[in-house]
Amino acid sequence: MEIFLAACVVAGVPLLLATVGELITEKSGCLNLGLEGMMLMGAVMGFTTAYATSNPGAALASAALAGAAGALIYAILTVSLRANQIVAGLALTIFGTGFTKFVGQPYLGMAVPSDVTAVFAKTSIPILSEIPFLGSIFFKQDIFVYISYLICIIAAIYMYKTRPGINLKAVGENTAAADASGINVNLYKYVHILIGGALCGLGGAYLSLVRIPLWQEDVVNGRGWIAVALVIFVAWNPIKAFFGAILFGGLSILGMKLQVMGVSFSQYLFDMIPYVATILIVIVSTHKKNIESQPPGNLSVNYFREER
Amino acid sequence: MNMKKFLAILVALIMVFSFAACGDEETDTFADADLRVGYIFIGPINDGGFTQSMYEGAVASKEHFAGAMDFKYRENVTEDTQEVKNTGLSLIDEGCNVIIACSYGFGDAMKELSEEYSDVTFLHFSGSMKNDTNFDNWFGSMEQARYLTGMAAASVSESNILGYVAAHPYTEVQIGINAFTLGAQAVNPDVEVKVVYIGTWGDAEKEKNGAEELLNEGADVITYHADSTAAQLAAAEKDAWAIGWNFPKNDAGDKYLTAAYWNPEVYFNYVLQNILDGKFAPESYYGTMADGLIAIDKLNDAVPADVQQKIADTKAKMEAGEFEVFTGPINYKDGSVLCEEGKTLDRAGIWSINSEIDGVSASSTN
Description:
The complex is a heterodimer. Chain A is mainly α. Chain A has helices at 2-27, 35-53, 56-80, 85-104, 114-119, 134-138, 143-161, 163-173, 175-180, 185-211, 223-233, 238-260, 267-288. Chain A has a single domain (2-307), classed as ABC transporter involved in vitamin B12 uptake, BtuC. In chain A, helix 2 (35-53) runs parallel beside helix 4 (85-104), helix 7 (143-161) crosses helix 8 and helix 12 packs antiparallel against helix 13 (267-288). The mean pLDDT of chain A is 92. Chain B has a seven-stranded mixed sheet with strand order 12-10-9-8-6-7-15, sandwiched between helices. Residues 21-26 of chain B have low confidence and may be disordered. In chain B, strand 1 (35-41), helix 2 (50-65) and strand 2 (69-74) form a beta-alpha-beta unit. Chain B folds into two domains: 24-140, Rossmann fold (3-Layer(aba) Sandwich), CATH 3.40.50; 142-262 and 293-361, Response regulator (Rossmann fold). Classes of the chains: A mainly alpha, B alpha/beta.
């Protein structure tokens, strides 16, 4: 059981990073559907940097920068040029997929250098890993997993306990009011779109550097879209995102687990659940009109100061 | 016209002509060849798997024909009939007189094109369609290689559990699983083959997850029927054996046992020679271990000498046509009969397999 739950955590990490990234972006009122593209860009740049430099730090930085660079395209299009957010996001997905194939082509099937994989090997945290049950699920993982825990906690503190975090919420809920109260709205949007992109890039890099340290053309394989659904499922809350990511990650391997245990259950069915669950959540939360689980008020609405 | 404009036009013209010059040079040697083959690939040519094996077969075949054959290719073509058709048309437009389509889903497009272009020969990998003149399909008895790798797997397993990461519960996959199991049972009758269906042909993380679940359940040899080598990675990380598939690529280091793979140049040389000699006739080509289309990689030294000998003997019998993988009695895992005692399955019988045999634990819900 612990082994399976630990595997769920691993399967959830790329989802967690992308989800936290996207919910930060959405809190600024920007709906970026380019997750899949940004994750792929992070995956390929993380991989190629690791391949060229054998330096894990450089690989992570490069993955984050690549994701942020993808997000920058989106930010310029939607914040400065006020293009339609949905279209810009979808375009970013298509661009990211093509970019990744183009850059990754010469590296297909090549391996991440052993200096890098050694750093990302499983390392137990002393003391914490001794906790019965929970220790072996959460604290016998690789360093990248621990980094993603930290990112999740920092994101929660930032969003709920700091002044900029509260300003961010204001920007997303009512951009005009935030602008009137003196918040630099465009700066907030730019910064949080870029942070979101960087986290997506890291999510992709987890797949290409740690999980499958051999370059594959489509290593992300739809996980970006699951993260889009997950943001709604967890109601834009980074702490809920932590558990939601493990849950959705677990669903992606639960069918296989049951097969090995001899229970007849199709993996196809489990692959559907994240989307079905998200649709149900949307229906329920819309029906209950629960303020906590509603999307930011000005989500996907571009802001024109002159139109006020 | 001012000077700037004139220069801009001049530069543009120079660029256009220099590109045209490159193109001419390339097509010249291509046009000289009698066999101008156009390959349509589903993946990239360096994928370390299926498409790479097809591409390297094409390169080897070009060398074999020394000037009489040249080829062009299109990679990453999706299984969309209209796109495949357009791809085929562009290859024909560039002078190809043979089109080799290397994926199951390319079949319909090949059939349509073969009706329109009677002077071009269309060869479709897998599938079953053909006509009487210029359209044929080709495949091979991968079950023979799977059988031999099963023998190797059983000989190194200590837990007597072999893990098999499979894409979909579908005939081609199940033939492989069953042949692998029969081979393993020939070495150790008590062995159990555990199967996980991941529900996709290619998703590296799922392939790895599937392999890890099998390893957690005690499997100490892993093989797979899916696109990437991720299952090999999972095995190597847990110090278990890995058996490759499609292309002899070792991603498991010392723990790489062998691989079951395609050697497509065998077919390319054969069919292209026939076309060159004017003897080509559609036949639903089915390559075997005997003609070399199907092969297994060199065995790891960990396979005991007596088993190595047994594998070599079985391989020799397969090559001589004296050994059938599916020889009765064989029962499905639910107890129904697949092949009666004293009988063997013919090609049609093999391709009507629809479940796993006794000795496999799998829960396929088609």
